[in-house]
């Protein structure tokens, strides 16, 4: 905290603000975390609070408003004692989430997406996928996850809300998230003693372990597949202002619809993830680490902090680590606040610095200029877990399975029309067909690989493999059977992207909305060949000119639908031109209301 700062008293009724500010060192780069905590404490971030924070942090109120406005979980107004957010993932929609949301709303006398109830008890809205589609439908209540929703659970929640009972007094059973593991392989089935990667570091040294990592061929598990050893080496070799001024960031944002495999690692294998991060710090020369945990996984925050505290106590982190291994490194957890774009690494860095999550221009890349200008390694949760285990068991162990360009295994989040949704660890190279058989898919029509931003694969291609050289994925596989309306599926994705576009560049900001409207027109059976062509062209422009990966991949599934599932839009393609609205029925409505009016007049 800047000692010269003038501490003006906080607004009335908000006496704990100075304490909250102090907990984050009163630093403006911790603004997002401060705002999240202010809201948790006071339910909203009102004008007086913004003005007070602006003064304390030497920011303009407009800057703070800009941050509040950017993150969908932050709000200036009171959303009521209970803010209920229903996950609007397509899988959960198909499982009846919307009917459950309507039931909850009608029991509580509000509308979904509508105003706060007059007695300020509650509000209900939809939110993007909350990482529970293997045990959905699911919702968040004041940020806490309730999975496995049924009508009985919805009625129980309605009663608890109506009673106004504090969340801490709700039955804990409601909040139980199952690990959801269906198949274990290299990573999940192998023992990893506490701090084993650091023992290996002490024994073999950083250079030797980096070589092992290189030989293992480990590539990033977050989607893009960049070689991990190369990333670490680039960061180690980047000029830093002092030897240990590098930063390690774990990307635990897991926002891709249909992905939930990092949830398992964070919930059950956090020691390995922290081990991998600390190993990375030892190799590259970093003293600071962050886990960027998606706000939707708020329920994991305390257990993760407890694990960090335990590691400090046993000498695996913090000052005690220095005595043992000769370098000091510690890890802080930052929460996200409901913005999918913050999974993109440069947007994540902006968010870590307390700002709106707009993706940066690159170069410079994070390895040379990352968090607050320091060279930074950003890796996915699973990548850190794999790196820790390679340090212990060696490159050969890891390369025993997988394919030529994709060594090791991949954790896959499988959901949708199958008997056994959940997390499957498979060697790279597994075919979709094998996966579909294992998870009990019946009559699958399509598999959406890699989330809303990924490929929609038809049944004739189920021989294709999960691998960087074929179907690359961060881990999401959503299965749709023959009865499913694939146009409704891509509409859900289009809604998602229109909502999640950060608005920074025009092709994506405008394009995602136009795509959404175009698909709506097809759904209303008013589309034509001209509309299909327009959608294709628009998708091409977005792919070529968007600033970041969100805009460039937002139409992949739509294009696959048009190319690979031509029967879905076959009839539309036969129509040369279709108006955006139905003139006949509009005229019919006008005629009917005119007739009704005339009858009224005559009657009067
Ligand atoms: C829109 C968008 C969202 C992303 N979301 C995530 C995410 O939630 N988790 C993740 O690990 N990587 C995500 N990525 C990829 C990251 O930018 C980055 O490549 C990754 O964190 C690097 O780690 P890795 O090399 O271990 O995969 C996203 C990328 C884009 C374009
Ligand atoms: S492509 Fe979309 S998400 Fe990415 S910077 Fe542009 S507007 Fe933002």
Description:
- The chain has 604 residues and is of the alpha/beta class.
- The chain has four domains: 82-175, Glutaredoxin; 182-399, Rossmann fold, CATH 3.40.50.11540; 409-484, Roll (Ubiquitin-like (UB roll)), CATH 3.10.20; 487-574, Up-down Bundle (de novo design (two linked rop proteins)), CATH 1.20.1440.230.
- Helices cover 45% and strands 13% of the residues.
- The chain is built from 25 helices and 14 strands.
- It has helices at 17-23, 31-42, 47-57, 61-70, 90-94, 97-108, 151-163, 186-189, 196-204, 206-216, 228-237, 261-268, 270-284, 301-313, 319-325, 345-352, 381-399, 432-439, 486-500, 506-523, 529-545, 549-553, 556-564, 570-574, 583-603; strands at 82-87, 122-127, 139-141, 144-146, 181-183, 246-252, 286-293, 330-335, 376-380, 409-416, 422-427, 444-449, 455-458, 476-481.
- The strands form three sheets. A six-stranded mixed sheet has the order 5-11-10-14-12-13. A four-stranded mixed sheet has the order 2-1-3-4, covered by helices on one side.
- Strand 3 and strand 4 (144-146) form a beta hairpin.
- Helix 9 (196-204) packs across helix 10 (206-216), helix 13 (270-284) packs across helix 17 and helix 20 runs antiparallel to helix 21 (529-545).
- It is globular.
- The chain starts with 16 loop residues before the first helix and ends with a helix.
- The relative contact order is 0.09.
- The model has no long low-confidence stretch (mean pLDDT 94).
- The site of flavin mononucleotide (FMN) has 22 residues, from strand 9 and helix 22.
């Amino acid at each position: 905290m800047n000692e010269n700062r003038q501490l003006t008293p906080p607004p009335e009724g908000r006496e704990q603000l100075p304490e909250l500010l102090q907990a984050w060192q009163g630093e403006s780069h911790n603004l997002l975390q401060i705002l999240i905590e202010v809201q948790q404490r006071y339910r909203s971030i009102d004008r007086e609070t913004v003005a007070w924070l602006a003064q304390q942090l030497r920011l303009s109120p407009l800057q703070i408003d800009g941050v509040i406005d950017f993150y969908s979980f932050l709000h200036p107004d009171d959303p009521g004692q209970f803010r209920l957010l229903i996950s609007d993932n397509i899988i959960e929609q198909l499982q009846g989430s919307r009917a459950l949301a309507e039931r909850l709303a009608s029991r509580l006398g509000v509308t979904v997406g509508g105003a706060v109830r007059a007695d300020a008890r509650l509000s209900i809205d939809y939110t993007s996928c909350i990482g529970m589609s293997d045990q959905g439908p699911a919702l968040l209540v004041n940020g806490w996850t309730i999975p496995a929703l049924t009508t009985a659970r919805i009625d129980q929640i309605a009663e608890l809300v109506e009673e106004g009972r504090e969340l801490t007094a709700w039955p804990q059973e409601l909040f139980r998230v199952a690990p959801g593991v269906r198949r274990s392989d290299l990573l999940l089935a192998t023992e990893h003693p506490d701090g084993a990667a650091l023992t290996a570091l002490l024994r073999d040294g950083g250079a030797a372990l980096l070589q092992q990592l290189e030989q293992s061929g480990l590539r990033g598990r977050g989607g893009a597949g960049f070689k991990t050893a190369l990333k670490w080496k680039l960061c180690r070799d980047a000029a830093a202002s002092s030897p240990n001024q590098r930063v390690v960031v774990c990307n635990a944002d897991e926002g891709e619809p249909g992905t939930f495999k990092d949830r398992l690692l964070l919930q059950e294998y956090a020691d390995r993830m922290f081990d991998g991060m600390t190993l990375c710090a030892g190799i590259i020369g970093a003293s600071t680490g962050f886990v960027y945990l998606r706000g939707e996984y708020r329920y994991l925050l305390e257990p993760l902090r407890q694990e960090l505290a335990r590691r400090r106590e046993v000498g695996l982190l913090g000052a005690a680590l220095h005595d043992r291994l000769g370098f000091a490194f510690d890890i802080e957890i930052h929460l996200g606040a409901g913005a999918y774009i913050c999974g993109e690494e440069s947007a994540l860095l902006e968010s870590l610095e307390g700002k709106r999550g707009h993706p940066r221009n690159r170069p410079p890349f994070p390895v040379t200029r990352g968090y607050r200008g320091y060279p930074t390694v950003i890796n996915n949760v699973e990548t850190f877990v794999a790196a820790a285990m390679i340090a212990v068991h060696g490159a050969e162990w890891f390369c025993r399975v997988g394919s030529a360009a994709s060594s090791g295994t991949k954790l896959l989040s499988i959901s949708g029309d199958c008997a056994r949704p959940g997390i499957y660890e498979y060697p790279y190279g597994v075919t979709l067909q094998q996966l579909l058989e294992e998870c009990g898919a019946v009559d699958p029509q399509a598999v959406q690989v890699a989330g809303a931003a990924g490929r929609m694969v038809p049944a004739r291609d189920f021989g294709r493999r999960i691998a960087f050289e074929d179907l690359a994925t961060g881990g999401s596989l959503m299965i749709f059977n023959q009865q499913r309306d694939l146009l409704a599926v891509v509409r859900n994705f289009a809604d998602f992207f229109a909502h999640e576009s950060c608005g920074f560049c025009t092709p994506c900001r405008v394009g995602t909305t136009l795509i959404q409207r175009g698909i709506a027109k097809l759904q209303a059976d008013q589309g034509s060949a001209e509309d299909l062509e327009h959608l294709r062209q628009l998708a091409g422009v977005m792919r070529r000119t968007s600033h970041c990966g969100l805009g460039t991949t937002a139409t992949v599934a739509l294009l696959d639908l048009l190319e690979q599932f031509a029967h879905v839009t076959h009839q539309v393609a036969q129509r040369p031109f279709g108006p955006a609205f139905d003139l006949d029925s509009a005229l019919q409505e006008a005629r009917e209301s005119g007739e009704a009016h005339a009858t009224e007049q005559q009657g009067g």
